[in-house]
Amino acid sequence: MIYPCDAANAVGILNIHYQFAETICRPKERIKAITQGLIAHDRMLADWDGHRKSADYRRRVTPKSL
Is 0.70 topped by the overall pTM? Predict the structure, then answer.
């Protein structure tokens, strides 16, 4: 299960990739950076969705306490 802290972390990674993409001048490289951000975001969420060992901790943690 994906909890709010997981989503907040994944959105943070996505924002980092988007900010980096804004600094790139070439359109194809900018699209590549955005795509890599989306892939990283999806992989993080998919990994956490199947991660059972830390689910109890992640359920109790809020994004503000990270």
Answer: no
